[in-house]
Amino acid sequence: MAVDNALVEVPARVLPRCSMAFIIVSKRINTRYFVNKQNPVPGTVVNDVITLPERYVFFLVSQSVRQGTVSPTSYNVILDTMGFPADKIQILTYKMTHLYYNWSGTLRVAAVCQYAHKLAFLVAESIHRAPSAALDRQLYFL
After folding, report:
1. For 110-122, how does the pLDDT look when each residue is reduced to its tens digit (9 = 90+)?
2. How many CA atoms lie within 13 A of 57 on its CB side?
3. Is residue 10 part of a domain?
C-alpha cells in the first residue's frame, strides 16, 4: 500500500511515535436507517449486521435534520496503526464533527474532511496554483 511505502521513508527516530488511521469517508451513500419510524439521534453508530465482517467499516449519524430523512456517513478504516478499539475511533470521529469553526452544530463529516474540501475547492476554482508558504499556518480558506 502507498501509505506503508511512505512510512518507510520516515526517519527511525520519528517512526515509533508515528501512529495514524487512514479512513475513507463517503457522504453520498443510499443507506438509511430508522429507530421506531424516526430518524436516529446524532451520534448513532452502526457497525454490524449491514457491514461486512471482514472490513473495518461503520456508519455514523452525526447531525440532526428538521425535515426529511437523515443520511449517515460511511467510514471505511483501511489502515490503523493507533491501536485504538473500534468504539474509540467511532467516538473520536463523532467528536471531530463538532470542531468546524464556521458552524455551531455538527457536520456530516469530521471537520478535517470539511477543511480539506474547502481548501481543495479554493485552490482549484480560484488560486490555480499552490498557496504561498506564508499561509501555511493560517485558515485563510475558510
Report:
1. 999 999 998 888 8
2. 15
3. no
